[in-house]
Each structure stands twice: as C-alpha cells, then as structure tokens.
Amino acid sequence: MSDCLFCKIIAGEIPTTKVYEDDKCLAFLDIAPMAPTHFLVIPKQHFASAAEVTEENEALIGHIYTVIAKLAKEQGFADGYRVVTNVGELAGQTVHHIHFHVLSGKQLGSFN
Ligand code: AMP
Ligand code: ZN
C-alpha cells in the first residue's frame, strides 16, 4: 500500500534499525521504545490488523511467532517478554499495517 508507513519501511523508503529480515517478515527497533528491548515485527504482506487474520494468512502469523521465539533466544531475553498487537484505534493502534510489539528488559506492568 503506497500510503502505508510500514510498507514504506519494507520498501526501504524510510530508514530503521533492522533486527531481522526474511522473505516473509521484517523486524526493526521501535522509534519510541517503551522498554529496554522494544522492536516491531511486521509481515511484508500488507494487512491492517489481527482482525484480518484468516485461514489464508494464519501460517504467516505462526511464522512471526517462530521468528520472535528465535530472536528471544538469540538475544537472551527468552525468560520474559511480551508480544502485543493492537487492533483498532480503541486499542491504541496508530499504524494500520499489522505489527507485533516485542517488549522485554524490565518488569512489565499489568494492562489497563
Ligand atoms: P501502534 O500504536 O500499536 O500502532 O504501534 C505503532 C508503533 O510504531 C509505535 O510504537 C511507534 O513508536 C512505532 N513507529 C512509528 N513510526 C516508526 C518508525 N518510523 N520507525 C520505527 N517505529 C515507528
Ligand atoms: Zn502496509
């Protein structure tokens, strides 16, 4: 999608600090970190949010969780981390390309 911030990041039009990339997904540091470790994992295929997950793309979501588990082990935070995906503006979603926040490195608070 030409007007999507994260599609522009995938296309290399906006610079980020890359954490991981393969043919299906990209991980990069969040520009406004909420924890010592805070990166985002996004599929290269554009869809708006987890509300659009279907049988057609469920394997891609599983792949993203596999990548996150591997990165957690490699980067040494597998003992405690949080994966968050916000759906819709009521949940605080500001970028409408599905993304998974990965947070670690401090005691994380409860949800509100
Ligand atoms: P959400 O509020 O769940 O939609 O999360 C969007 C996230 O994208 C926020 O945590 C932002 O800090 C992050 N973000 C926005 N623009 C950029 C960017 N250019 N590079 C890295 N992270 C970004
Ligand atoms: Zn997009």
Distance between the termini: 32 Å
Main beta-sheet strand count, sense and barrel state = 5 strands, antiparallel
Order of helices and strands: HEEEHEE
Oligomer: single chain
Q: What's the Cα radius of gyration?
A: 14 Å
The total count of helices amounts to: 2
User: What fraction of the residues are assigned to beta strands by DSSP?
Assistant: 15-25%
- Principal-axis shape: globular
Largest beta sheet: what is the strand line-up?
1-2-3-5-4
**Number of strand elements:** 5
Bound ions, cofactors and other small molecules, one mention each: adenosine monophosphate, zinc ion
Features:
single chain, 112 residues, alpha+beta, five-stranded antiparallel sheet, 5 strands, binds adenosine monophosphate, binds zinc ion
